[in-house]
Structures are given as C-alpha cells and as structure tokens.
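S1.2 Input.
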Amino acid sequence: MPQVGDKAPEFELLDQDGNTVKLSDFAGKTVVLYFYPKADTPGCTTQACSIRDRSGEYEERGAVVLGASPDQPAALRKFADKYSLPFTLVSDPDPSLAESYGVWVEKQNYGRTYLGNERTTFVIDGEGNIARVFPKVSPKTHDDVVLEALGELAAA
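S1.3 Output.
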C-alpha cells in the first residue's frame, strides 16, 4: 500500500459513462480516491450519499472525488443515477487499480472467503503524491475524517 509521501500509482480506467479517466487528468488538483467494495450495497451507498451530501465541502477545499470499485461502467452509471452522485466513479474490474494501491485483499463474510476492495481512501496532492491514507474507513465517519484532513492540508 502506498504511504504518505509516495508517488500515487497512475491509472487509466473507464468511468460510469465509459469515458477514460487518468490520475494525470487531475494534475494540480487534490484528489480524494476512495475504494469501495460494490455499488448499491448498504455501506457503499451510505458512503457515496454522504459524499454527495457534502460535495460542496469537498469543492470548497479544492478536492476532486473519485470512487473506485470492481463494478462495470453500466452498474456504476445505474448507481450514480439512482442516488444522484455528482462525482466520478471508475470501473476497476481486473482489479489493477486496487492491486496497485494495495487494497485488493482477502475478505471473509458469512464463512465465505473471497477477494475484494478494502474500504480505503487516499488523498493525493496536486503533485501526484500521497498526502493521506485512511485504511478501513467507516462509511458513516468517512467524510468527517477526510474533510478534516483536507482542511489541515489546505492550512499547511
């Protein structure tokens, strides 16, 4: 997993509209890259809707939000439309992005073992370096933690 100060791994993936999105597209901007397990599941919906509801606060802090999951673009479009999500969702089905960020991990649920995204958020500065890492974030407190960090980064 990349650590604070490391260069953020570059990526090129499709978004919910089938458009190509690259990290380098956001050079000079702060990027909040959050990984979530699956679109339209309870925890992921809580997290996404909270980001939506506080999107103005992210904008005030100059941050662009990108959500990443293994879902296909069509599923991401449906998720974004259903909940009016105003930010970009990227499709990582192979899961090259999650692996490069060290969040593709073995998980267990109801006695079943499988691989999936660990709910983790990276704040990437305008130079493309990791400024903050929040592993295993809670969907309910995610925005409080991330927005506080963005405020600290802006003040530094």
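S1.4 Remarks. The two ends are 24 Å apart (CA to CA).
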